[in-house]
Write a structure and sequence with these properties.
By secondary structure, the protein is of the alpha+beta class. The protein has a single domain, classed as Electron Transport, Fmn-binding Protein, Chain A (Pnp Oxidase, Chain A, Roll). The chain has five helices and 14 strands. The longest helix has 11 residues.
């Protein structure tokens, strides 16, 4: 079978993409508004885009449901404050992460709604999720409009890892981390790691 994206609905092509580009890591992005309101939301279009300097990207789509046609609070806050934090989601944090993904009004604090603890960052204003094992503080590098979405690129200015997840020599204990990934509409836990022969 083959599909011409121009001949199908965007949401159907989206299903093909999200069912094929798997598993996708989840960037649990915390931001802060001009008024100082905290915001937290997950994004599964997320990756590393540069090693030197270290840069990460997230892709933010348009608002949905009652907020159709508007920009998501995360994008508004990043544009305004030029800072954000990417918190890594481990499997035990799946339910709070899912709660923070709900289409809540702008004045709702997702940290409170998901019963999470905001803690101060070292360099940026947005708070970190205390319960998350890894946090990456980022300064905005660029926002690039791409079709219906926006590609947000940030330079990582601080990296935090809980000592229980650090193996030393700059290595993360992935078995303990139990990173949560996105598989189309489902989720997966990364485990059963193995090496291939060289």
């Amino acid at each position: 079978m083959q599909f011409d994206p121009t001949q199908h609905r965007s949401k159907d092509v989206y299903k093909l993409l999200t069912g094929s580009v798997v598993p996708r890591p989840i960037a649990w992005v915390s931001t802060i508004s001009e008024e100082g309101k905290l915001n937290l939301a997950p994004f599964s279009f997320f990756t590393v885009v540069s090693r030197k300097p270290p840069m990460l990207s997230i892709t933010i789509g348009p608002g949905v449901g009652e907020r159709l046609g508007t920009e998501k609070d995360t994008l508004v806050n990043i544009r305004s404050q030029k800072e954000f934090v990417i918190n890594v989601v481990s499997t035990p944090l799946g339910n709070p992460m899912q709660k923070s993904s709900e289409n809540l009004p702008s004045d709702v604090n997702e940290f409170e709604a998901a019963d999470l603890t905001p803690i101060a960052s070292e360099v940026v204003k947005p708070k970190r999720v205390k319960e998350a094992p890894i946090h990456m503080e980022c300064k905005l590098h660029q926002v690039i409009p791409l079709g219906s979405d926006h590609l947000v690129i940030g330079e990582m200015v601080r990296y935090h890892i809980h000592e229980d997840y650090y193996l030393g020599n700059y290595k993360v204990d992935l078995e303990k981390l139990r990173p949560l990934g996105r598989l189309a509409g489902n989720y997966s836990e990364s485990r059963d790691f193995f090496k291939l022969p060289r």
